[in-house]
Amino acid sequence: MIEAVGLTKRYGDKTAVYNLSFQVRPGTVTGFLGPNGSGKSTTMRMILGLDNPTSGQVTIGGYPYRRLPNAPRQVGALLDAKAVHGGRAARNHLLCLAQLSGIPARRVDEVLGVVGLQDVAKRRSKGFSLGMGQRLGIAAALLGDPQVLLFDEPVNGLDPEGILWVRNLMKALAAEGRTVFVSSHLMSEMAVTADHLIVIGRGQLLADMSIKDFISANSADFARVRTPDTEPQLREKLSSALTEAGGHVLPEQDGALRVTGLPLPRISDIAHDSDVRLWELSPHQASLEEAYMRMTQGAVDYRSTIDQKAGLMQPLPPGAQPPMPVPGQGQPDWYAPPPPQQGGQPFADGQRFAGAPGQPTAGPYAAPAPAPGAAPAAGGSPNPYAQAAPQPAAPNSVPSSDLTKPEDAR
């Protein structure tokens, strides 16, 4: 079992983790969630003795990691899959780790088979893909057959088959009575893998509970109701009746109604009494992602702003030369794309693909007009990607061929 009590870590005037206390119990997969910069990696490093806490303590089986006898045989971890010498073969990397911990060499071949790297065991790790590197890191964590395992983003870079394999591996390890602590940003994967959640934000504990309790505590269940699309007046009639009965009704983008405050049988009775036909009446429970977003919305440090693309389409300054005429303009079948909107705003959905089929649309990222003299494309239309005619070299300019000489490359 992993136990943290009053764990605090400061880097100068920045507090990465503050007064954090939790337990990771054996027999379950415990998910470790939090926004970027919330202190998850710092906490895992303190668990493994890589960072010393400013105050508080964290123990594994009642002992700090550094006091565990032969710690690699008791604790396995994947924190950084890239922490491998690129010139070393996968098997040799694991063999070195095994020899340092007194693990028999046959175990190396066993874990290579477990993670599916037996066919590339002699290849250097610098040629591995991101997913292969993750598998090698998981093999290193499993090498000592430990009872406590920590994984930081174990499915990063894996394909769907690899993600399913990691999910089943975590569950199997927990079913054997091991302590499994997994950090991830994939809410959909954590929802089907973890049994318990520890959520932190800005270094402080936000939640320590089962997934079911976490979702219930941070979301509101609702009923989804849909009436015939061809009869919008029925939807308005039902909405008024549900509101009068004490329900809270919100319209959804697809025309359905989101109803809270009333159970499904009551909604059905109200629709029947109002002579309104229903096409859909279904319960809805929030996902882990929705509950997580609601819980951590006040602990996010990095938020995006709307990209207005301002300044990309500035008007010509007074006195500037007008644009050169476009070859083929005014000729039959010549296509002129629509002008960009004021201020470089994105096109509306109906305008994004306006124009002739196969032609580039105008906008901040439209292809430049072809230079004078460019050959028109097939069909009589100018080729929007034709290269401009070469310009005479400026006085005292250096020929481009001279720039590739070895002496200039230095």
Give a structural overview.
- This protein has 410 residues and is α/β, with parallel strands linked by helices.
- The chain contains eleven helices and 13 strands.
- The strands form three sheets. The chain has a six-stranded mixed sheet, with helices on both faces. It has a four-stranded antiparallel sheet with strand order 11-12-10-13, covered by helices on one side.
- A hairpin with a 2-residue loop joins strand 1 and strand 2.
- Helix 2 crosses helix 3, helix 3 crosses helix 4 and helix 7 crosses helix 10.
- The relative contact order is 0.10.
- The C terminus is likely disordered.
Question: What is the strand content?
Answer: 15-25%
N-to-C span: 58 Å
Order of helices and strands: EEEHEEHHHEHEHEEHEHEEHEHH
The number of helical segments is: 11
Q: Major beta sheet, specifics?
A: 6 strands, mixed
Strand order of the largest sheet: 5-6-7-3-8-9
How would you describe the shape?
A: elongated
Could you estimate the helical fraction of the residues in percent? 25-40%
- Radius of gyration (CA) equals 31 Å
Uncertain residue segments: 334-371, 373-410
Number of DSSP-assigned strands: 13
Q: How confident overall, as mean pLDDT? A: 79
Question: How does the helix and strand content classify structurally?
Answer: alpha/beta
Outline of the structure:
This protein has 410 residues and is α/β, with parallel strands linked by helices. The chain contains eleven helices and 13 strands.
Record keyword descriptors for this entry.
about 400 residues, alpha/beta, four-stranded antiparallel beta sheet, disordered C terminus
